[in-house]
Amino acid sequence: MTSNADQPIKQRAAQLCHENQANIDHFVDNFDAESFERAIKLISEARRVTITDLASSPLTANAKASIFVPHHSSFTSNSIISYLAAAECIINAVPASSSKQTEQALIARQELIKRLNIEERLSKIWCLPYGMTA
């Protein structure tokens, strides 16, 4: 059997991408909308959130809701791409679940950015030639 390290770099990259896509496909194929909605309601009120890979994880024993995300990989580390995809789903679902609160939070955030003058200060930094500081 050939190890991953013996494969050409492009072939290894392609394999990793295919494995990541398979994990995301598995996440989508097994998506439980009822559990996800329950989790989103809890997450929107939570201070801390844990996402796990298996129902047999010890983290699920005391959980009110669980979101399962596969991470299988033939490489050294487990895949994080499917976790990022699940996190992005959560990040977008939580504000959508309470649009009035979200709107108020966004207005407050925008006012804070304006008061701190962040955008103007960042635009000056990003537009400086390489090696120059503001």
UniProtKB/TrEMBL annotation:
Organism lineage string: Bacteria, Pseudomonadati, Pseudomonadota, Alphaproteobacteria, Rhodobacterales
Domain of life (superkingdom): Bacteria
Organism: Yoonia sediminilitoris
Protein's name in the database: Uncharacterized protein
